[in-house]
Specification:
4 strands; alpha/beta; Transcription Regulator spoIIAA; four-stranded parallel sheet; 4 helices; single chain
């Protein structure tokens, strides 16, 4: 499943994303791609929202991939070392291909 995100993921907008990701966690979505192509910025509340989903997904073996991060957003992920937690891909196709691999075929984080 792919979620296309857009605009700012900040204190004002992250609660909506949190609700959506909680629904995906409750549904035990096996693989989720977050498309950041149209995301202009993300703040600490947005990062916390992503971390919360990641922790929930780990409990049921769910996989998560991020793609299309623009320069500013990608720089922040590397700065706070989220790039060591979240698989970040340069393209949507690359991310989808990685998610389609069996979990044992993926590189461990």
């Amino acid at each position: 499943m792919t979620l296309k995100l857009s605009g700012a993921i900040d204190l004002r907008h992250s609660p909506k994303l949190r609700r959506l990701l909680r629904m995906k966690a409750c549904a035990r979505t096996p693989a989720l791609l977050l498309d950041f192509t149209e995301v202009s910025r993300i703040d600490s509340s947005g990062l916390a929202t992503l971390m919360e989903y990641y922790q929930h997904a780990q409990s049921f073996g769910g996989r998560l991939a991020l793609a299309g991060l623009t320069g500013r957003v990608q720089s922040l992920f590397y700065l706070v070392r989220f790039s060591e937690i979240f698989p970040i891909h340069s393209s949507i196709d690359e991310a989808l291909q990685a998610l389609e691999q069996a979990p044992s075929e993926q590189n461990p984080l």
